[in-house]
Amino acid sequence: MNLKSSKSILALSAVLLFSSCGNQDKKEDSETVVEAESKFLSKPLISHIYTADPSAHVFNGKIYIYPSHDVESVVEEDDSGAHFNMRDYHVFSMESIDSEPKDHGVALDVDDVPWAKRQMWAPDAAEKDGKFYLYFPAKDHDDIFRLGVAVSDKPEGPFEAQPEPMKGSFSIDPAVFQDGNEYYIYWGGIWGGQLQKWRTGEYLSTGDSPYDDEPADDEPAISPMIAKLSNDMLEFGEAPKEIKILDKDGSPILAGDHERRFFEAAWVHKYNDKYYFSYSTGDTHNIAYAIGESPYGPFTYQGVILKPVQGWTNHHSIVEVDGKWYIFYHDTELSGETHLRNLKMTEMTHNADGTIEMIEPILK
């Protein structure tokens, strides 16, 4: 079912409901509709296509959003996320934080990426010297996730992909952070994101289940990755390093601590000279964060920024616009389907002590 047809069914259902009820029933049903609409903190930003995993940036005085593009899929749902079978990227721009996002159309399609086979998952973008770089994961022809780069003269694209993936790249969810003149790329995601299969430094799978290669619960959790980018922004400029996420006593977060361990969706922002590493906890559905003194970490766990949204996944970005901070995220309000998501945004507050005020995306 596409977005338009689902809306039509909802509209028809509403007509049938109201035509079969008396005045009192109409009032009660109306109140129910209002309650249902108000249970979400924020409204969808985009409704004509399904979008998720938003990476937001300010380029040339405008807000640009680089999301993944959810589509109907005939692929059967499984624990590896095969039903998230996206094939292209659209770029959106906003003149201000309150304006309607403009869809600039397809910026990059899987058919335009020679090395990519399928599953164009969550991307990010960066700007350097007037050039714009789109970083994205996709499965290669061996069904192994790699990271790719595409380049454009405009923030909205279209982007031209490099003929090969980044050398030595693996897993998913690239996020680029600029700190002065340096650019760092963060990435990684377990389960369907395959990060657990790279624990030896090479792709190694001991079974068909995405859980087979995880550490024991009492071992340190699998770490996300970081590397400084090369000067041309097209490759790793150094050997990738693991990021340590620590408890406040200095011990590593453990693999069995699903409330706090890294799962996917790395993002970094800087506030008051501190580095904030935020991420999804996956099957516990939080966006959590940790604070460090360096882009490399280690990062000390602080708490939750965004509580679970409607839908299985939770993925975000954080950006400063006109002196205020905003978190972009997604849920499934428009479709009710895990793999057909819609973008949202709300203001985010740093407290006086540097912690972040927790956000409830679903109102009680």
From TrEMBL:
Keyword entries, A-Z: Carbohydrate metabolism, Glycosidase, Hydrolase, Polysaccharide degradation, Xylan degradation
Protein name from the UniProt record: Glycoside hydrolase family 43 protein
Family classification: Belongs to the glycosyl hydrolase 43 family.
Molecular function per GO: hydrolase activity
Coiled-coil regions listed in the entry: none
InterPro entries in the record: Glyco_hydro_43 (IPR006710), Glyco_hydro_beta-prop_sf (IPR023296), Glycosyl_Hydrlase_43_Enz (IPR052176)
Organism: Belliella alkalica
Classification via PANTHER family: ENDO-1,4-BETA-XYLANASE, PUTATIVE (AFU_ORTHOLOGUE AFUA_2G04480)-RELATED
Pfam families: Glyco_hydro_43
UniProt superkingdom: Bacteria
